[in-house]
Amino acid sequence: MGNPKGFMMVPRVEAGYRPAKERIFDFGEVEQTLNEKDRKLQASRCMDCGIPFCHWGCPVNSKIPEWQDAIYRGRKDEAYYILHSTNSFPEITGRICPAPCEKSCVLAIHEESVTIRENECSVVEQAFEAGIVKANPPRTRTGKKVAVIGSGPAGLSAADLLNRAGHLVTVFEKNDAIGGLLRYGIPDFKLNKSVIDRRLELFVDEGMIFKTNVNVGKDISREELLQEFDAVLLAIGAEQPRDLPVEGRDLDGVHYAMDFLTQQNKVVSGQEIPEEERILAKDKNVIVIGGGDTGSDCVGTSIRQKAASVTQIEILPKPPEKRELNNPWPYWPNTLRTSSSHLEGCERRWSLSSKKFIGEGGKLKGVEVVQVEWSKDDSGRWVMNEVPGTTEILEVELALLSMGFTQPVHVGLLESLGLDYDQRGNVKVNDKKQTSVEKIFAAGDVEKGASLVVHAIEAGKVAAKNIDEFLR
Ligand SMILES: Cc1cc2nc3c(=O)[nH]c(=O)nc-3n(C[C@H](O)[C@H](O)[C@H](O)COP(=O)(O)OP(=O)(O)OC[C@H]3O[C@@H](n4cnc5c(N)ncnc54)[C@H](O)[C@@H]3O)c2cc1C
Ligand code: SF4
Hints:
Elements (H helix, E strand, L loop, with lengths): L5 H4 L10 H4 L12 H8 L9 H5 L6 H9 L3 H9 L5 H7 L3 H5 L11 H14 L15 E5 L3 H12 L3 E5 L8 H4 L9 H12 L3 E3 L10 H7 L2 E4 L5 E2 L12 E3 H12 L16 E5 L3 H12 L4 E5 L33 E3 L2 E9 L2 E14 L5 E5 L5 E4 L2 E4 L3 E3 L5 H5 L22 E3 L2 H4 L4 H19 L1
Helix pairs in contact: 3-5, 5-6, 6-9, 7-9, 10-18, 14-15
């Protein structure tokens, strides 16, 4: 423990965001960093608890008190090695993880948890700056070949560990760039793509093979795959978006959030989108349907595209500002979350159901919404009821559907592989992440359903360990 009295003497300080009036004019990362002295002070607040609940909260089992201590003592290399020992991408979780570790930190009991996520990010950035992070190719190769299909955090986390174990890993990606949702979902203002490229360069130097623009199942058949590789990892995510099949869904101006976000990420990377395909919020009144993270990313992107107004609506009631009695520490707090994008100027409304899209000449002009109430029926199930007389029409020219993802896409690769699914339509795996076909494993959103980067990284770790055992 850095300083036994740190948590009593030093208040929690966050680096905060760049001012909204400045950041909305660019797609640069919104988050700022503390100077080294303040960062050490923040690290000194960790109490090295006898029972560190932060471990319990962290899906990748990060050894948090150990690397906080190393930060405090100025041991940059040690801090980085401890951090990297349980997570291939601390530079990514350090930026975009919702940090369940902080919610379960013992100091969160009085809402002053250690600044774990920001400290994590600063450890990695300092390590890269100091030249501590270097390619470390395996000394020997096993002669076994593994195909990883899908290059999101699950696929890359597994690929890293399998490559380190000496297997020859080829990562296939159907898009034109590696990274999965890190690349073409999460906006640059949360995660600058050079952060992904920096890590990929190391992977290439370590002998990993990347093949982009390859849609496995279409460009490579099941037979070719199973013949050429000793093991296969499916990490294709859960790309089937939840639709809103109401009247007017096919109007010009109603789009899936991912189509909108992907285009913007491509534009930031220097690619051009044909004018007739471009989805732009500029000068439009935008409605974002769905109150989650994807929706919040649509809000921030619309604001940067200079929308006339942005409204985000959610069908569920507004969450409480503070934990309720049935949701105590150290559990994940089911409370209202406000992102940097929300602070940039958007109206948020809850308990609203979208009834139909209204158009004129084929173009979207409005959305009819109605207020809803939620109550439990006799069997204890939540039931939604419309509140009579509360129908209203919101005038909008762009509607972005961000109501989550239902399951992985079955058509194509999954159908050709003939794997079993679970009840929700995800690929069914056992506790080794092995599917119903012995040689094929699956990790990440494809087997868990849409989740978080940190869960995908952990799933990739579990799959890599078991693929390694399977191959040996
Ligand atoms: C807009 C948005 C914002 C998000 N923000 C956050 C956040 O801030 N923090 C957080 O923790 N989580 C966030 N998430 C969730 C997180 O991104 C996902 O949980 C995570 O990326 C899942 O990782 P994955 O590797 O399982 O799949 P993905 O990242 O979805 O990667 C799957 C990859 O497989 C490829 N693929 C699919 N089929 C094939 C095929 N047949 N052949 C070759 N390649 C194929 C896809 O093109 C894709 O690149 C966000 C999600 C979205 C949509
Ligand atoms: S729970 Fe909080 S204070 Fe305790 S060891 Fe973990 S980070 Fe440090």
